[in-house]
């Protein structure tokens, strides 16, 4: 009988010349594409394709050996073009965390690169940190490393670091950052509510955006009245605007509406559709999508139909979340208006008929807001549509893989609000980690539903 050969580095084939440098270059370019990808409405599946390039590098470097990989990464960083600097930094951090045994050397590299590329350093640690790195950062006397440690403790959602985060707050670390880390660990302090309420009543939009993020993660209905008053101020005609606060106002408005729609969909939808709340257009579409209610959906379909163009990413996400699919005619760049209109009406009729409006055909639709059409759709009056079905019949996060990053973030907020439990998963996390978390939630929910069935 032949004895099987035991594979090891000693008897493995020698590495192919140039393979490591090519893997490094591929990973560096992939990370360079990642941040722009997150600013678009691509799906989690698209993000996974990018993240796999980083995973392939880490796998390859286990074969080549840590020292060779780190040396090659340092050389790539030294020679990187400006457009590749962020990717080169992430690769250096990731390989150092995986292969450098000396913690002092790892921290020195983090401190060296942090000022140059803080986001890339954070992501390298978020995705690939060694087990002891977060604790070392939290015990650092360097304020920059301490702040990074607080953020990393929250992103990794490890309660083992809770005491160190409290200690960091006493040492002067940013209060809202510490509260967010605690919320992500499922341990928001009782005294957090007054602090967050005071921030929402103030005028610092950057602080408010972080306070809103704490509420998104924490779950339940914490500070609901304060949130409602905050949204009134934020959207008032004499309130802040995108022109006065570029990036901040739109981000704060989107986060606040995600919270409100997740907690009180009917009230949020009424404010958007009946009161004409001043909001970014894509935020309005996300509110309509998450609520899934016919009174707001019909005018939105009318608006989409009137546009002589393919659907925008936010409109596509709305159709995907509400109806469960998006016909190709609606996304084709060179499509014609009659084909788009026909496809939209056929999709809507298919879903409406499947939910109690038998006999409805595209020819019955002359105008989406026609009272006669509303009468035909009476069976949908009490239903929130999600993926072409009543929402209560679906598992949570059903469409998370197939909508854009912004709407997926709203789904995570909705999950935390509905369960009343903290949900720290970030829409910017590694794609595979997000997919694993969502699939686990789906499996647990499915088992719970079977156990509860008579």
Labels describing this entry:
mainly alpha; two-stranded antiparallel sheet; single chain; 454 residues
Précis, in short:
By secondary structure, the protein is mostly helical.
Note down, in words, how this protein is organized.
The protein has 22 helices and 2 strands. The protein is an all-alpha fold and 454 residues long. A two-stranded antiparallel ribbon has the order 1-2. β1 (385-386) and β2 (389-390) form a beta hairpin. The longest helix is centred in the last third of the chain and has 22 residues, at 431-452. The termini are far apart.
Oligomerization category of the chains in this entry: single chain
Number of helices: 22
For the largest beta-sheet, the strand count, sense and barrel status come to: 2 strands, antiparallel
Strand order of the largest sheet: 1-2
- What's the shape? globular
Structural class: mainly alpha
Distance linking N and C termini: 56 Å
Percent of residues in helices? 55-70%
Order of helices and strands: HHHHHHHHHHHHHHHHHHHHEEHH
User: How many strand units?
Assistant: 2
The parts where pLDDT drops under 50 for at least 5 residues are none
Radius of gyration: 25 Å
Strand content: under 5%
Residue-averaged pLDDT, rounded?
Answer: 92
Write the layout of secondary structure elements.
Blueprint: H1 19-38, H2 44-64, H3 66-79, H4 85-99, H5 103-114, H6 118-128, H7 133-138, H8 143-156, H9 162-170, H10 175-184, H11 192-201, H12 205-218, H13 224-235, H14 248-263, H15 265-273, H16 281-291, H17 294-306, H18 313-323, H19 337-354, H20 371-376, E1 385-386, E2 389-390, H21 405-419, H22 431-452
Antiparallel strand pairs: 1-2
Helix pairs in contact: 1-2, 1-3, 1-4, 2-22, 3-4, 4-5, 4-6, 8-9, 8-10, 9-10, 10-12, 12-14, 13-14, 14-15, 14-16, 14-21, 15-16, 16-18
């Amino acid at each position: 009988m032949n004895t099987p050969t035991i594979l090891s580095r000693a008897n493995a084939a020698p590495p192919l010349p140039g393979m490591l440098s090519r893997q490094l270059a591929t990973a560096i370019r992939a990370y360079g594409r990642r941040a722009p990808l997150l600013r678009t409405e691509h799906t989690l599946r698209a993000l996974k394709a990018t993240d796999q390039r980083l995973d392939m590098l880490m796998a390859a470097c286990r074969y080549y050996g840590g020292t060779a990989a780190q040396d090659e990464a340092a050389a790539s960083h030294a020679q990187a073009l400006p457009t590749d600097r962020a990717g080169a930094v992430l690769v250096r951090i990731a390989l150092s965390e995986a292969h450098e045994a000396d913690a002092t050397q790892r921290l020195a590299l983090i401190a060296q690169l942090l000022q140059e590329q803080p986001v890339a350093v954070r992501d390298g640690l978020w995705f690939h940190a060694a087990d002891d790195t977060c604790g070392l950062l939290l015990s650092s006397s360097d304020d920059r490393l301490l702040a990074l440690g607080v953020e990393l403790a929250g992103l990794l959602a490890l309660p083992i670091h809770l005491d160190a985060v409290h200690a960091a707050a006493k040492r002067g670390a940013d209060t809202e950052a510490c509260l967010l880390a605690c919320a992500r660990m499922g341990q928001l302090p009782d005294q957090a509510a007054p602090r967050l309420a005071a921030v929402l009543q103030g005028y610092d939009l950057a602080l408010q955006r972080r306070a809103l993020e704490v509420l998104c993660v924490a779950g339940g209905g914490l500070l609901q009245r304060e949130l409602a008053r905050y949204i009134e101020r934020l959207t008032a005609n004499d309130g802040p605007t995108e022109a006065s606060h570029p990036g901040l106002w739109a981000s704060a408005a989107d986060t606040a509406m995600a919270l409100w729609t997740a907690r009180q969909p009917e009230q949020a939808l009424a404010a958007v559709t009946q009161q004409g709340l001043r909001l970014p257009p894509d935020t309005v579409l996300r509110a309509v999508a998450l609520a899934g209610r016919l009174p707001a959906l019909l005018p939105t379909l009318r608006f989409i139909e009137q546009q002589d163009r393919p659907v925008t990413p936010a409109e596509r996400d709305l159709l995907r979340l509400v109806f469960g699919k998006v016909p190709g005619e609606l996304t084709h760049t060179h499509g014609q208006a009659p084909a788009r209109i026909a496809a939209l009406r056929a999709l809507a009729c298919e879903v409406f008929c499947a939910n109690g409006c038998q006999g409805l055909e595209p020819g019955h639709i002359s105008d989406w807001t026609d009272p006669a059409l509303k009468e035909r759709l009476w069976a949908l009056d009490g239903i929130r549509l999600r993926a072409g079905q009543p929402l209560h019949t679906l598992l949570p996060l059903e469409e998370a893989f197939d909508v854009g990053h912004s709407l997926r973030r709203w789904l995570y907020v909705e999950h935390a609000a509905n369960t009343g439990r903290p949900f720290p998963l970030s829409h910017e996390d590694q794609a595979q980690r997000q997919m694993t978390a969502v699939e686990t939630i789906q499996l647990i929910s499915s088992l719970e539903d079977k156990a509860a069935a008579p």
